[in-house]
Structure formats: C-alpha cells, structure tokens
Amino acid sequence: MELDGGSRAWQEHARRVAIVPLEASGPRGEGSDMTALEGGARTVVVTVGSLASLPKLPPRLEALYSPPIVGSVSIRATVFDALNSRFVGSTFVSPSAPLANPGSRLALDIPVVVHTDVVDVRLLLVVELVMAVVHPDPTEPSEVATTEYGLGFALLPFNADVPVGRDRPLAPLYAGTPRALASVPLASVRALPGIASLSWATLALDPHVTGELGPYLPFHHLVSASSTVPGIDLTSIPRPPRPLPYDGLAILSPAVALPHMFEDLFLARVRAAYAHAHNVDAATLGAFAITERRLRVGVHNGLKYLSPPLVVSLEKVASSGTLEFGGTLLLPLVPLDGGIALVTVLELVVQRPPLKLTKKERKRAAIDAPQATKSYGIAWAPLLLSSPGSNGLLHGDVEVQLVPGPSHNPDSRLLYTCLADAHASDASAASNELAFRATLVPGGADDLPPGVDAATATEAELPAAVDRKSSSKRSRRRRRSSRKVHENEELGARGSEYDFTGAPVPLDYPAAPQAQAFSARPPRPAAPRAQMRESRVLGQPLPQSHGSSASAGAFAHLTRADKAALFRAGFPELVDGTGAPAANVSGAEPGPLSASELARESSDVNNVSTVHIQFLAYASEPGAERIGAGSRLYFTLQFYSFPLTETQQVALGADGEVPEDGHPSVLWKMSSGGQRGSMPGLDLSFCVDPGFMRPHEAGALAGYLATKAVQITVWDAASRMALGDVHVPLRALLRAGRSAVAFTDKVPVVYETEIDESPAAATRGFLFVRLGNVGSMSEGEAVGPYDPTSVAPAGLRPPGSGTVFEVARPMREVDEELDLVLKQRAAKDGSRLDSRLDAVDKALASAMGRSVLEARAGNAADLKTVALFRERRKRLTLLSKLSAALTAEHRLYPVFGETLFFEYELVNPFDEPQVFAVAHEVENLTVVTDYNEWLHCKRTFGVDTPAERRYMEKAGGVVSIHLDPHERVYIPFRYQAWDEVQAEPFTGKVEFVDARGRPAAVLQLHVAPQATPADRTLRFYGAEGEYLKRTLPLLGVPRSAVKYLRASREDVVCGVRSDPAEVYFKLAVGAAPSKTTFVLVVYDDEYMISVHGVWRVEVTAAVRDDVVAVLGQESTRSLAVRGGSHPRQVALYTSHPSILRPEAPWGEAASLTANALNEVGLVFKPAAPASIGVVAHMVDVERREVVGAWIVHAAGKQPVLSKTFAVRLGLDVGSRKHVSYRNSSRSVKKYALHTSRPELVDVEAGSDELVIGPGESGTIALVFRPQRTSMAGVRVFVFINDAASGKNVECLGIDLTYG
C-alpha cells in the first residue's frame, strides 16, 4: 500500500524541519571552537516581551495602498553562531497578533524554548519582527493580497548570565534584515542606532527538566513553550513536562519486498558510476557483489529519533527475492502519540573489486585508494504507530511503500537512485513494488504469540521522560528480561556520525560493523583528541573456543536464600571517603559509552578510582565434578593494565563446615600458617590514580569499564586445576558523578578447558562476587595534558605560554674531578718527602706566614691543571645548553601489539636547503615512509596534518628528507611493541642530522611499557612432543571479512581464514608439565593498527595415555613416574574423579622415590559408552607445584545385554518394579547391583547387594523416579556385578520413556 494521509502529512512535516547542526556551521581556526557544556545540555526559555512603540512603515509603503492597511505582527527566532557568522538550528515562527494601530505599544510575551549543548556568549538568539500587510491585489482589485515586511531584528544573548531584576532587560531593535549578519561583522551591526527597544527575559530550566526534554528536542530547534512536541507536553514548563503514556512494540518477521531484477539494476548503476568516478572503462572492472542487506528501524517524532535505531541484517529468499529477518525486534518505549512514526530505511553494502589502473589511468583517477566496501541508502518510509485519540499502538500485519531516490528523510542521507533510468521502461512500475512488511504486536516480549522467539530483541536507550505510572506490568517485566544484542553499530564505532538531527553524512560504513563503543585508538570524534589517544584499543568480539552452549557471561540472579546466606556472613561494606555506603547498582552487559558519559567520567572531581573485586562465596553445581579436596580455592585475573594477579588461597565455609551442592559456602582468607582469617571474603583493590600514571587515565579507564568484562579463573588449590571461568561485565562500575557504586551478583563458573582434541564445557558452580568503584581526589600532581600524536620542536613554545627567564646561578667553588686530580698529585708528592722536607716546610711556613696548602696553590703545574679543567667545563656546559635547546621530549606507554602513532614537527634552522637524515636506535620505532600507510594512520588517529607522496627517501636503511630554508615538515613515527614480557622503562633518542653531521633537532622518547590486557584467556592441554593445532571461530564477524593476525612468539604458526572467519595456530608442545603462554592479536586492517581482539593462550604439556573399560566395571592403569633428585611428598588428582581416580595412597599423600621409576595406579569406571579426555596432575604437597601432568583418554565400552525391557511412565509419576534373577552357578554368589543413571532408575535402598544360592532365584528391586520433562528411548543399564571381583556378570537394559 502507499502512504496514508497521516503518514504523508508526517513526511511533509519532517521535510519542513530543516535543522542545521552547529558542528557543520563552517571552518574554524585554532582555538576558535565553541565552549562545550559540561555534563550534557541545558534548556533556556526566552520570553520575547513588548515594544514601547512599534516602528511605522516607511511613507512610501503607506502611500502605496490607498485604503487603510490592516496588518498583524509575528516574530521569527533563530540561533546565530557569531563565531562563524552562520545560522544554526531551525527558525521559529510565532502566531500572528492583530495590530490595530501601527504606532501603538505592542505586547508579545511569546516564550521560546532553546535546547543547546553549548554555553558561549557568542551564541545569540536573533529575533525578527515581521508585519503582514493585507491590501488589495494590484492585479485583481476585487481580491486581497498579503505582503510581509521586516520591521527590524534584535540580538538576545540567551546563553549569558543576564541580570534580571524587577524590569526586564531591553535589547535594541536594528533596522534591516538579520540575514545581513552572515556578511556584515557583528560589531558593525551593534554600532548602529536602535530604532526601538524590545524587552525580553530568560529562564534556565532545572537540569532534571532538561534531561527529560533531551530525547525529544534536537539541539537549537526552537519551539514555543505552549506547544506540544510529539511524545511530550511542554505546556507545564518551567515545571517538569508532562510525559505521555507509552507502551512496548514488537516487530515480528520484518521483510522488504524487492522488484524483479532490482539488485541487478542496482549493481549495474553502481558499476557505471564507479567507473565514471575513476575515469576508467567499466569493462575492465571486476564483479560487484552485495555482501550485506541491512534494515534500520527506529521510532521518530518528526524532530529526532527517540532512541538509537536498531540495525539488523536481512537474508534474501531465493524463491521470492524478498529480504527477510527471521527474528523479532523489540522497541521498549513508544509514546502513544499521533505524531510518533516508525521509520524504516533499507541499506545495501556492496563489495567492490580492487581498482587495477595503468599509469595513465592512475594519473587521471579522481581517488587514489577507494574503499573495498560501501554502504548505500536505498529507500525509506514512515509509518504512524497510533492515530490521534487512540488508546493503543498500531497492531497486525502492515505493509508500506518505501520511497527511493533523493528524497528528504530523517537520517539526512542521500538515497541512491538506482531505478530512475530513462532507458528502463518498467522502472516506474518496478519502484512501486518496493515495500516494507511486518507484523506489529503492542506490549513487547510478554505479548508475543506462542512459539515466537524474541532472542534478537534489542533494549534501546530509554528516554528520560516516560510516564512510569501509566506503564503496564508487562512493560516492567519486559525491561527486566530483555537482552542487548545487535544495536546501532555505527553509533558505537563512528561516534556521533548518526546524530539524526544534523547535515547529511557520508554513506561509507565499516565493512564489518562492530558494537565498539569506546575506541581511543582510533578515537571517537566527539571526544577531545588528547584524551582519547592514551587509551587501549578495546576490541569487542571474542573467539568461540569450543562451541559451548553454556554462557560464561550470563548472570544468575540472586535468590532470597542466597541473599540471606550472604547477609548472615557479615561481609564488610564498601564505603566512600566520608564513610557513606556505596550506591547499589545492577550488573550490566557491556554497551556503548556516549561522548557525554565519557566527558562526565573524565572530568569527575574524584578522579582517582579504586576498583574493588570481592570474592564472597562459592556454590558447587549439583552433580558437578569435585576436583581435588574441594575445600580451598584461589583465583587469577587481569584487570585493566595491571599485571596478571594470583590471589591467596581461600577456604570454603567455616571450620568443620561441609560444603553442600547448590548452597553458597562463604570464602575465608587463609594465612601462611593455614589458619582462617577473622573476616569473611577476599578483597582485591586496584587503584587508578591519574596523578601517578599515564595522562588522561580517567578517560581510558572509563572506556575500559564501559566495554569490557573481567575474566576470573577459579582454581582448586590442592590439584592446581582450573574449575572454570567467569566473565563479569564492568559497565555498572561507571560512577556517573557518584562517590561510590557497587553491585553483587551470582556468576556461573563454566569449565571450557580443551583437553588435547576433546573440547569440554560444563557449569561447575557459581561464584558470588561484589564489585565496586570508590572515587577520591588525587594527591599527586596530574600528568599532562599533551597530545600524544604531535610533538612540537624544541625551543618553540605554545602561544600564551609567556616568556621564561633563566636566572644566573653561581658555580660550585670546587670541581669534583679537579679536586680529585689535585689530591692525587698531593698524595704522590707527599709520599716522596722525608722528615727533613717536612721540617723545611714548617720553617718556610712560619717564616712566610702561610700554610703548605697555600704554597701548593701557587704552584705552576696546579694552576695549569685548573685552567685546563675550566676550559673543558665551559665547553661541556655550552654543549649541554645547546643540546637541551634542540631536544624535545615525548612519552610513550606501549602495549604488546598496539600501535602508537605521532608526528614530529621538524624545522630547518639554516638559511640554505638541507637534507636531514633520521637516525635512532630505538627498538620497535619506525619512520612511516609508505604514503598509503601514512594516510591510514592519519585517518585512524584523527590527525589532520598535510601528507605528500614521495615525502622521504630511504636508502641503505637511512631515511632522509629535503627541507628548504626555515621550512617546517611533519615526520611520522610509529611505535609498535612486539615483546609480550613487560620490560622496564627506558629512554631513547632520535636525531635529525644534516649532511655535515650537525644535529638540527633531537627527540628524546621516554618509553614505559604496560602490561598486555587480554580480552580473554584460552587454555589447552597438548601431548608433549607433538604439534597442537587449533582453530578458533571469530564471533560477530562477517564471513567475507578480512582480518590479520600476529602472535607474540616466533615459534607459533598462525593466520586468519575467511568464509567463515576463524583464527588458527600451530605450536610445538614442550616437555610435561611445562606451560607455554603467548598472545594472539587480531587486526582489522593490513597495517595492523586497529585491534579487533587480544587473546592470551595457555598450552600445558602433558603425557598422553589411554585406558579402556567395560561400562559398569572398573579397570586399572599404571603410570610410570620418574622421581627427581630428592624425595617428594606428592598427591595425584584428576579432572573427573567420578570416573577416573588414583589408587591409594596416591590420592592423599605418598612418597615419590628419588631417582627411580614409581608406579602410580589409576582406577577407571566409565559412566557412559563414550570416550572422554581426563587430565591428571601430580602435585608436590609441600611446595604446591605441579610435578607431572597426563592426558588420559578414557574410553567406555558398552556391555553385552542379556535382557532388554521397555518401560513407559507419565510425567511426575514414579514406580517400583521387581526383576527376577537366577544364580546358574554351583556355589553361593554375592552380587553388587547399581545402575548407569541413578537419577532416573536406581536400586531400592538396602537392596544394592544380593546373595543367591546355587540354582536359586532372587529379586532385584528397582525404583523409577518421577520426571517433569518428557523423554523418549533413554537407555539405562542395570549392572549385576560379582561383589568379590567387581566384574560384570550380567547387564540388563531398560528403554525408558516419560510422557
């Protein structure tokens, strides 16, 4: 269907709202930016008052019309940027007021609402008075016409603190049109005499009111305080506005119907346009292909999107050509207003072939390095979600025609016209088939039809002004249960590119969209450049190591019983500096960090953040394996840029307490003597103080907390085996101006260690943790600020820094080196003197009245030595002063695999052309000589300095550059550390030397390496002496995406494959039980600058062994262990003690004989007819270190069944059955009875042993336990074993069905 009348009217209203953003107002010079408002935005109500006397029309206008004229007056208000002489925002037009007498007093009292994010006196409100004159139409005397005349304009500084007393301030009314402000200096306009005075007043609204208006009003869009904006009512201003009722909306199976041959025509037009843009023949280009089809869906009120739009990928149905999304989209908050529309935009991402140009074509090409992929906006359409006066949202099946071509749209994007071809006769008909189809269900997730999966729902950013009281219960339940998934990836990856209220933006999107909310390398455009460069590259997607279905990052909510157990333990409370308890928040998944949130975190007065990670309790999963003694644990984790931390041991429960499955056991710190501490829990604190760390550490920490999750590994202290990992998102630790925040949660411990080629994934238990962030003020002197991408030359001071005077200081009276030489000479001469010379010296001293030392001071040799030292000291002092004048300093904080890019401004100080060579011996530092790489670095890091081709010459490993007299150039440097081990800080020099060897400048680099922050740690066990080969899929990466990989060890063979995207590596495993650790870094670009993810890989070498047993009976296996140089007390532990356990006494503590082979027995009792990899650790009991490791492949074989029974039971129904068994032997036999699935079928209590005489029969009593879930054909084995040998005598099979 076509657009209905309401949707068409909404489209026309959105077309008239043309909002010019302040950011696009024009070029700005250095230091001329507007002052951004800290903390978000402000809202000001400007009331245009009255005129004492209205200016009269010129006599020539009054004489123009013979009858008396009838007129009305209105105002037009617009925000004016006096800094750049541009009008911004939109123009407000008030209703007309009738005018009886043109010369009388005019009372207006029109309130205008201005919503701005800039506080600057150079931002003015221009108010123009317009008179509408009704007069006879000159062409038709019987008709009347209306002509508008400008009476003048006033300039109101609404952003300044204007004192308002009893009388309102007056502003002069200038004659003429305000459009002259774009070309006439503002000072000249203000120097003109005013023709009248306009009274006015301002009222800055409360920040709470401003926050409620923010989601509905664009910046600098002027509205009347008496109007109603779609979604919110402004008539209550200055009190908080009255929010409108809202409801949720679910969009089921959204799809887009395409015309026949639509994509073929589109690719043909793109191919032709691409060839024309690059001035090449279209026949020489390769194939163009559509790699992704996107649908952008958002709620719009005609002025802006109420929340960031949802972006999903569509799949093309081959049979019909329709683009479909099989999931469901959830819009949590949709106001019930007739002006609210659902805006849908169709986008196509095209993969373009590499451009192969000849030399002549390369010279004619308009673009040097075109992008490989590009996104095109195709069509859009609005759909009104509710009609005026209705009580609910639109529901049912809907279909709306999408509007293609260059039409105005809320995204302010240029839509591609691919069907407007004059040669295509059916183009107009085909365009009518482009339509959006979906099923709308109001209410959200709880109101979906049965069988509809809402896992793809997105919880969008909630507007502040919502009617909480009018929301339904299902909306509150939905907000608690909705989960974040694919949400507006460009908003996170490209900063403020999609403001949806600004000018048109480029259509170039990333080929592989990522939900990367905070990236300082590359930086966010909305944040200060210097703050953003000093932080880590924070990659979002993580590898899927084993395809586990268990979610390591999912939270299990605390039950009331859990909260009661934690409360009884009496854990110490987190408090701030004043002793007040920390604000309790809820744990949140990682998400985007807006520029305002980042600015608020970075500019917090409490700039020191102390992050606490408290371990409270641990609960074992019922039925999970218990490794080791199970009474002591320890944890390993890496937080931020701190090194990998291993905690002290903690005990489960109090003294004498036996841990129960599913019940939280409180953790107690253990002292060095093995005693429990007095306070429960274990607290780790990490203090991030910008006064003693890197510049702008607060902004870097905020980005880390917003996008990362800390991985905590739980270890069994006795066996030194990992029980599993937990992943705790850190987003909730952002304090948002508060002094302290904290949250407590219960996180599953998931075991994901891969044993040789056997992946394993299971939930072993739950860890109760509390995380908090306590703010305080720094006691150290803040470092910085400085721009890490630019280094100014030495001797040049920034403007406004003032003159620095050197104060003359007296030199030391005695030079240390000279004094040492003179003393050595005196000692040498004194050794040759005898007693007679001493007597002569004394006589001369008494005769001449001076000491022997004064006589030696007059010695010619000493005077000559003093003169030589003085001349040398002058030369060294002069060289030192010159070197200091030529030397500039720069600090680097590298992390393994991270690129640090900066440019040095080199100046030729000579009056003649020179060729300077760049010489340095700093490891990992390179001069960027490749032009394309230089451009890529500039784009990535937001550096806007000029670049040139053939900029430098590299010959014989020496980089040189030519400079004219006193010319300034920028030398690009790139520092990328490839050493995983954190080195000590060091200092290196870079010298710029001319052809004669004279240094023109010196750059001194202070390098302080940082620890490598890994997104995730992956652990593997491999057989010693063999190659470990593994492949890790990259989640969230398109199949055709191209990635690049680098490992921290040279002996690791690694790479990245596409379609599907996956990482592979190969490593030679060492001798058992050694552990090899290395880091893998995945990059998004070929220059290895943008980091996609960082993963730490741990490979433990172990001896491979095998054991086989029949299901239902035990089998033993012996391990040969060679003792060391001295005896040890050791114990053997396995990762699956229920099926593989050590023989006594190796399970507790046994002596390992030195310099001999020791036989260690293992007992294998399989639980299922399958093969499983089991890890065994031999641990030194005293030193707590692993002295041996094995990988045991335990295989269980299915026994021979003597009988098979089929049993069917209903749900929640149990039963007891008896099976007769006869002893066919000639002696009395004692049998042991057990089953393979005791949770389903078990032997009756007290009947697990059966004694039967020769030829007699006995009864086996079986209990069938009730089940709540249906199952069919489950095979359960009943084992009848010989009690003496443990061997299977017979085995019965039961095929069990429930339901």
UniProtKB/TrEMBL annotation:
Domain NPHP4 Ig-like: 889-979, 1043-1099, 1111-1195, 1202-1298
One cellular component term from this protein's GO annotations in UniProt: ciliary transition zone
Region: Disordered, residue numbers: 463-510
Compositional bias ranges of the Basic residues kind: 471-483
Ranges where the NPHP4 C2-like domain occurs: 564-751
GO BP terms: negative regulation of canonical Wnt signaling pathway; protein localization to ciliary transition zone
Superkingdom of this protein's organism: Eukaryota
Annotated PANTHER family: NEPHROCYSTIN-4 (PTHR31043:SF3)
Descriptive protein name: Nephrocystin-4
